[in-house]
């Protein structure tokens, strides 16, 4: 089960990260404001180098618990990254996530790139459901979920101890038939 990489959209290229991308990935993954609602703390150069090295080698989803991270390139620069991970392939479900540099907020690049990856999840990987989990205070992420056609399936109150306090968790989901219906309207 492979996702065609690189993936091209109108304004972005989704591709595997390489060593030459470290500076651009560091520019957003090192920021406290970017990591505020994410499970990791701001990354330093060594962390980003390890992240890029690890995920740059994952070019396919071939088995249970596989995932891939694709850099989102816009005008020749990496401005964010998207992750797609599966649990058990027989369950045909994938989790999508994203991290973007704030300088591209409001330009529609995250929606454009995430739409392409959701397309791949349904069309190329033949998944039945794509879901995302996020901190419900992260309005940019839940707005992106809703632009993708996802609906909030759950709000788990004080679900985990998160960065020094009890944190809530929102779960958004989208089924293949729902995606197909949206695509028909868009085309």
Description:
With 187 residues, the chain is of the alpha+beta class. It has a single domain, classed as Gcn5-related N-acetyltransferase (GNAT) (Aminopeptidase). 31% of the residues lie in helices and 32% in strands. It is built from six helices and eight strands. The protein has an eight-stranded mixed beta sheet with strand order 1-2-3-4-5-6-8-7, sandwiched between helices. A hairpin with a 4-residue loop joins strand 1 (7-8) and strand 2. It is globular and about 40 Å long. The model has no long low-confidence stretch (mean pLDDT 95).
What is the overall shape? Answer: globular
Major pleated sheet:
8 strands, mixed
Order of helices and strands: EEHHHEEEHEHEEH
| SS strand fraction | 25-35%
The CATH topology annotation reads as Aminopeptidase
Distance, first to last CA: 26 Å
CATH architecture: 3-Layer(aba) Sandwich
- Biggest sheet strand line-up: 1-2-3-4-5-6-8-7
The number of strands is 8
Fourth-level CATH superfamily: Gcn5-related N-acetyltransferase (GNAT)
Unreliable residue stretches: none
For the record, what CATH class applies?
Alpha Beta
In total, the number of domains comes to 1
Query: What value does the Rg take, in angstroms?
Result: 16 Å
How helical, in percent, are the residues? 25-40%
């Amino acid at each position: 089960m492979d996702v065609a990489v690189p993936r091209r959209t109108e304004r972005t290229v989704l591709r595997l990260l390489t060593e030459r991308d470290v500076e651009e990935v560091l520019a957003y993954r090192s920021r406290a404001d970017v990591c505020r609602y994410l499970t990791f703390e701001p990354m330093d150069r060594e962390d980003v180098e390890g992240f890029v090295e690890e995920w740059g080698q994952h070019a396919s989803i071939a088995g249970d618990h596989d995932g891939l991270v694709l850099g989102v390139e816009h005008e020749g620069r990496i401005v964010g990254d998207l992750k797609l991970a599966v649990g058990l392939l027989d369950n045909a479900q994938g989790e999508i996530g994203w991290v973007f540099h704030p300088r591209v907020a409001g330009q529609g690049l995250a929606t454009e790139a995430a739409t392409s990856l959701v397309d791949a999840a349904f069309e190329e990987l033949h998944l039945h459901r794509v879901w995302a989990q996020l901190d419900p205070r992260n309005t940019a992420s839940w707005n992106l979920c809703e632009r993708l056609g996802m609906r909030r399936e759950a709000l788990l109150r004080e679900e985990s101890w998160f960065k020094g306090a009890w944190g809530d968790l929102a779960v958004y989901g989208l089924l293949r038939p729902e995606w197909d219906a949206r695509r028909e309207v868009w085309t």
